Amino acid sequence: MFYDREDCIKASFFPDDYGTPSGVFIFKGFFTDEECKMVEDALKDYDLSDKYKDTLINWYANKVSPPLQPIHQLWEKASELLYPEYVMHPQANVLIITPEMNEGMFTHSDSPGKGECHRLSQVDVWKTCCELDYGLVGYFGDFEGGEIFYVNIDKDGNRTDGVGEENCLHIKPERGDLVIHGAFAPHAHGVKPVTSGRRYAFSNFVLKAEDNPGTFYNYKTPEYYDQIKDKDKLSLKEFVNIWMKPLKENPQFSRDRIEKYQASGLEGPELSDKFMGEFKEH
């Protein structure tokens, strides 16, 4: 398993509520200087006023980059770390936080729980939010601030019932680092404001290979290699349209439904309470 590697720092380690070994796992310098520079160069002229439209949480609107050319290569490197037990769905964007935004990231869990789709309040076209086990984040850019804090884990890495933001576990990611943490409430986390530079975060969901909901091909399968075989011949837009298109639609987040959710102006529990009840598992 990835957390058994010698280069894995276990800042916290305990089983989640579903019996999966969980925690906060840090891989220092996982991405090389050259790999970091590829992401940074791709974003050096990015206009921060551009808006990301496929979200139900306004916080993301000015913080999600367009698809980036280098990300697939880095996605494969992270997928190799997880292989063969775990997989990630396709992802080609990064989250951007700068001092000018005057905010970090709100406290949240990556998943409301397995089988808890009726509690979702963010777009989930890959249908992975209620199947995942971990969140994974790679860091790029030179920045200060931007620490991750885990409000339900104390400074020694022990699970608690809300020790508070100031007294909980804090992780200061640096350029090239990779952090993997549990997906559920015990690993609820937020991000401190960035005080200088730009913090680029490649964020994705990690689930057991056998739990793939059929929306994407698992890394290293014949179907995956067939899907990406023409990557070097295609433009970024053409490749993204192939790799980033789910193999089947998640009816909970069809285009019509996303637009309906957005038009309501609701966010968080208010949105899920109003619209998601029909997706509750019985």
How are the SSEs ordered, and which strands pair?
Layout: E1 9-15, E2 21-27, H1 33-43, H2 71-82, E3 86-88, E4 95-97, E5 105-108, E6 134-140, E7 143-145, E8 148-154, E9 168-171, E10 178-182, E11 189-191, E12 194-197, E13 199-208, H3 222-227, H4 236-243, H5 255-264, H6 268-275
Protein model, in words:
- By secondary structure, the chain is an alpha+beta fold.
- The protein has one domain: q2cbj1_9rhob like domain (Jelly Rolls, Sandwich), CATH 2.60.120.620.
- 20% of the residues lie in helices and 24% in strands.
- The protein has six helices and 13 strands.
- The protein has helices at 33-43, 71-82, 222-227, 236-243, 255-264, 268-275, and strands spanning 9-15, 21-27, 86-88, 95-97, 105-108, 134-140, 143-145, 148-154, 168-171, 178-182, 189-191, 194-197, 199-208.
- The strands form three sheets. Strands 1, 2, 3, 4, 6, 10 and 13 form a seven-stranded antiparallel beta sheet that branches. Strands 5-11-8-9 form a four-stranded antiparallel beta sheet, with no helix packed on it.
- The longest helix is centred in the first third of the chain and has 12 residues, at 71-82.
- The radius of gyration is 18 Å and the shape is globular.
- It starts with 8 loop residues before the first strand and ends in a 7-residue tail after the last helix.
- The model has no long low-confidence stretch (mean pLDDT 96).
